[in-house]
Specification:
This is Response regulator transcription factor. The protein has two domains: 121 residues, Rossmann fold (3-Layer(aba) Sandwich); 97 residues, Orthogonal Bundle (Arc Repressor Mutant, subunit A). Helices cover 42% and strands 20% of the residues. The protein is built from eight helices and twelve strands. α1 crosses α5, α6 packs across α7 and α7 crosses α8. The longest helix has 19 residues. It is elongated. The two termini are 37 Å apart. The C terminus is likely disordered.
Amino acid sequence: MPARILVAEDDLKQAELIRRYLEREGHLTVVVHDGRAAIDEARRRSPDLLVLDVMMPKVDGLDVCRVLRADGDVPIIMLTARSTEDDLLLGLDLGADDYLTKPYNPRELVARVRTVLRRTRSKAEGEVYRVGELEIDPIRHEVRLAGRLLDVTPAEFKILACLAASPGRAFSRQQLLEHAFGFDHYVFDRTIDVHVMNLRKKVEPLPGTPAYLKTVYGVGYKLADKVVTSDAS
């Protein structure tokens, strides 16, 4: 479905290229060239998605992300020339839904836009998340494996639902902490490791070699977007 997309990119040629690719997909696209304009335009138009360059004049993309996250939950895809892990984690910790490192193929950006829009629309409609034989139902607050209802704690469910909403995306422990526990300063990163260990005992055929809940070393965890069964291996 067409969406209202705001593009914040100070490189005029790059911004025009993004606009053309998105409009070719049928999206209504508005382009701005600095962070202040991005904040003003996002508040005025309430876009369905924001494509946001990190390095921009007046207000940089990280601060734009921080401000708009305080306002609401517009999906954000960040574009960055910074490729270090710290910069990536900072963007994700601020609430970006996805990111692309420059240089990138515009077709990949269009594909990421499509994925993020589908994910957010599915979340709004209460869609059941399915990966392999694992099902997470946010409305019924249920987890099933091969049709069998699993007994998971509320915190385990929140962590799993967070991961399942974006299969294949790595989440830091801090992001998962905030999703499951809010800003409880008495809860530590190690808590996430314990919950993931317990979840693996419940959802993994072989907890020692997880097929669903993957460790992303130096970052945190992700839910596999595809699961290869033993019959297919």
